Amino acid sequence: MNDIPRDAHLAEDPRPAPAPGADRSSSRLAIPTPVLEQLESHGLPVTGTLDAVEIKLQEQVASSHAFVDELARYLIGAGGKRFRPLMVALTGHLGEGPSPRLVDAGVIVELVHLATLYHDDVIDEAPARRGTPSANSRWDNTVAILTGDYLFARASELSADLGVEVTRIMARTLAELCEGQIAEVQGSLGALPPDVPKLAPTRQHYLEVISGKTASLIATSCRYGALLSGVDPDGVEAAAGYGWNVGMAFQLSDDILDITSDPEDTGKTPGTDLREGVRTLPLLHALDQDPDGELAALLDGELSDAEVARAIELLRSSDALSRARDDASGYVSAAIEHLEPFEGSPVVKALTRLAEYAVHRVG
User: Fold this and answer.
1) Closest among 89, 276, 168, 123 to 115, alpha carbons compared
2) How far apart are CA 52 and CA 100, in angstroms?
3) Residues 334 and 211: beta-carbon distance below 8 Å
4) Residues pairing with 132 in the sheet
5) For residue 95, what are the contacts with CB-CB under 8 A and spacing of at least 6?
6) Predicted pLDDT of residue 203
7) Separation CA 277–CA 299 (nearest Å)
8) Residue 56's beta-bridge partner residues?
9) Contact (Cβ atoms closer than 8 angstroms) between residue 246 and residue 211
10) Block means of pLDDT (10 residues each) for the chain, length 363 residues?
11) 347, 102 Cβ separation under 8 angstroms
């Protein structure tokens, strides 16, 4: 785990800040349309790859069993920003040129992401996903779990077509995703079976959780893009390091947005993490500063709406948010440093701006 540098200073982004997405569990990695348009205008076409990914997604999840087909397409039809395929498409410009295989790689990472959403909703007992009833609430947990497994299988089949190394990378990533999820369960504030070792929800624990649950798949997306475009092994590692740090920065900015977001602007009700008992980094910073104060007392039990509102008020008035922004800025700086081997490549500026966006969108 990289330590967080705290001396990052980013140039002001002249573009107006876009409204962030509203779905925490899909990581809210929303990229505004103007960014895509700028990429195209600077000779970095990605829209064609993303369009092809969308078509291939529908083909890849098709099943001769009507119910399975409906289930597999359920979350695809609910939308999503396809952030991970975008990262594949962008880093595909780091090498000799975009490869047709990038489309399949983009489909693989999106299928894995979608599969984790089906499973996460079961674990979280989530009633909705992207504004529609979650699969587990519309049908049941068994159906949702098996659908996620089906998508994992379809991703594995497609990865085999791209070679052993692509399959090995995804197998390793799936292990990291599972380790992150298990660690989150162990650090849960809810009751655990007596034979499950409990982990203290510390700062280090939370960073390990989001490294596995969020950053690992974004790192793999960038690894795929670089690998399949002919980048040398050191460059592939640099691209993956860039992706991991971007994933960490985006997740931390999501943690901040869960506290600071205005429902009228974002459509999102703040305090989702608080209601779910998730100790995100801003909350951990606040508790470190005042472990026996009012906020800590509020968190001792299930929160009412009034208590969530008060907790948000306390967090907004503390310096925990600025400390979390500093943390996110540190990851952004680290991400940009990983792009140094590609200096001179036209895509570096776009990847730099994309990393900086993780901090700019939270002020």
Assistant:
1) 123
2) 10
3) no
4) 129
5) 226, 229, 230, 231, 235
6) 92
7) 8
8) none
9) no
10) 32 29 38 60 74 90 84 73 90 86 95 87 68 74 85 93 95 95 82 80 93 96 96 97 96 90 66 83 92 88 87 92 94 97 89 89 73
11) no
Gyration radius of the chain's alpha carbons: 20
Are 205 and 199 spatial neighbours (Cβ–Cβ below 8 Å)? yes
Q: Which two tokens stand for residue 332?
A: 């952004």
Secondary structure string (H, E, C) spanning the chain = CCCCCCCCCCCCCCCCCCCCCCCHHHCCCCCCHHHHHHHHHCCCCCHHHHHHHHHHHHHHCCCCCHHHHHHHHHHHHCCCCCHHHHHHHHHCCCCCCCCCHHHHHHHHHHHHHHHHHHHHHHHHCCCEECCEECHHHHCCHHHHHHHHHHHHHHHHHHHHHCCHHHHHHHHHHHHHHHHHHHHHHHCCCCCCCCCCCCCCCCHHHHHHHHHHHHHHHHHHHHHHHHHHCCCCHHHHHHHHHHHHHHHHHHHHHHHHHHHHCCHHHHCCCCCHHHHCCCCCHHHHHHHHHCCCCHHHHHCCCCCCHHHHHHHHHHHHHCCHHHHHHHHHHHHHHHHHHCCHHHCCCCHHHHHHHHHHHHHHCCC
Distance (Å, rounded) from C-alpha 219 to C-alpha 240? 5
Which pairing describes strands 128-129 and 132-133: parallel, antiparallel, or unpaired? antiparallel
**Cα–Cα dist 254/263, whole Å:** 14
Cα distance between residue 59 and residue 270, in whole Å: 37
- The one-letter code for the residue type at 32 is P
Q: pTM of the prediction?
A: 0.85
In sequence order, what are the residues at sequence separation of 6 or more whose Cβ sits closer than 8 angstroms to the Cβ of residue 338?
238, 239, 241, 242, 245
Predicted confidence at residue 335, as pLDDT, reads: 97
Spatial separation of the C-alpha atoms in residues 331 and 189, rounded to whole Å: 27
| Residues with Cβ within 8 Å of residue 238, at least 6 apart in sequence | 226, 338, 339, 340, 341, 342
